[in-house]
Amino acid sequence: MSLSSPVFRDRSVLFLKGMAMGVADSVPGVSGGTIAVISGIYEALINALKQCHPLALKTLWQQGPRAFWQQIHGNFLLTLLSGILLSLVLMANTVLFLLDNHFVLVMAFFMGLVLASCWLLRADAGRWTLFKVLLFAVGFSLTALTAVLNPMAGSTALLYIFFSGMIAICAMILPGISGAFLLLLLGVYEYVLSALRSFELDVIMVFALGCVVGLLSFAHLLSWTFRYYREQSYALIIGMLAASLIVLWPWRDASVPAADTGTVLAALLCAALGGAVIVGFSRLARG
Predict the structure, then answer these.
(1) For residue 51, which phi and psi values (nearest 5 degrees)?
(2) Secondary structure class of 202 (helix, strand, coil)
């Protein structure tokens, strides 16, 4: 495959989108699903995951590996998941450093990302009817609820880690609801991130298994809603995205000091950068 070929370009862009999803999923309050939506691959991702079911093994047995790989959209999933996993492994220390030392600027960047996403996605909901406005309100309320929940004590038992993975992965593919934030609520965020940094294979494998089980189960429901209620689904999603601004607001935490003029200006620049990144993603996705 030539470096200048359209296939190589498309896969490279998809890999970078996967890396962006990985970065987003590692930040509490941000959803990798948000990146998938605004980069134009969300529906393709859901439909690909839907094909990864036990019946696909029948295709493998009867028609061979090539037909099986095509049925599950193997090239798409492998490229995207490789980007996500590489990003999670490489960026774990960087994300922790940025959150510890530049928390306000990181949150401002993602707020700009979310605001631009809501604006760009409004057309996908079609004509805004009263029912779609109600769906927007429902999505907004679901995400806003996570902002007022208090973290649990959590557990390091592998069974608890498995179920935490199942729950968090469902949030990771829902725009606006942060899987990392749910891990914080479940009390295992630091534990799982530390396991990734130190390559604790037992924890990583159990958590990954929980993610796989939750992801494949949830993908069928999402695929069905997009197939039959696409515009209504986007109205709900935009509500979720809009409410994530509450979760991302950096001064919601009393431990964050009040901002001076310099910090506010830097935050506004970071928000503008976040918005610019989303516009760039959107243009890449739509040709």
Answers:
(1) -75, -10
(2) helix
Say which residues have a Cβ less than 8 Å from residue 31's Cβ, sequence separation at least 6. 24, 25, 171, 172, 173, 174, 175, 176, 177, 178, 179, 244
Cβ(57)–Cβ(51) under 8 Å?
Answer: no
- Per-residue buried b or exposed e for 57-74, using 16+ beta carbons within 10 Å of the residue's own CB: eebeeeeeeeebbebbbb
Cβ neighbors of 167 (< 8 A, separation 6 or more) are: 182, 186, 214
How many Cβ atoms are within 10 Å of 284's Cβ, its own excluded?
13
User: What are the tens digits of pLDDT across the range 199-233?
Assistant: 888 888 999 899 888 877 787 788 888 888 889 98
* Confidence (pTM): 0.69
User: C-alpha angle 136/22/171, rounded to 5°?
Assistant: 35
pLDDT tens-digit map of 111-158: 888 788 788 878 888 889 999 999 999 989 887 876 666 555 667 788
Distances (CA, A) of 170 to 39, 80, 173, 217: 19, 17, 6, 9
